[in-house]
Predict the 3D structure of the following.
Amino acid sequence: MLSRDYRDIVTGAVLTLAGLIYAGYAAMKYDTGTISEMGPGMFPLGLGLMLAGFGVVIALPALRRVGEPVEVEWRQAVAVVASIVVFGLLIRPFGLVPAVIALTLVATLGDDKLGLRGALLLAAGVTAMAALIFVVGLGMLIPLARWPL
């Protein structure tokens, strides 16, 4: 079996797909105008096409290059996905602070090196930053904490 650089192939394919979707959306929703009189959609269209081009430049050479075997770290992947699900389930009934604390603690379950003390310190820091950025800085109407009855 031919061993290819699947990491770069997948990365290039994702970048190409994202760029084409972005460029297609820009072309359909905004007036691109002409080269001499550019409309508001020309810049996003160009950015999307550049992103797609970068994806092709990354993926094509990887088809001929031998890559190292890709090992998926399932524990980390499951921890990250579970933390997002936990956040989504907790944000409405309990508010921002408990949801971000739970998100951080569940996400740290995927790490071998971070102990309980480190996880709690990280949760406190991330929660403080989230509250400062979203509630104080941006003025979003997210309750910090509440108890559903």
Q: What stands out?
A: Residues 6-63 form one domain.
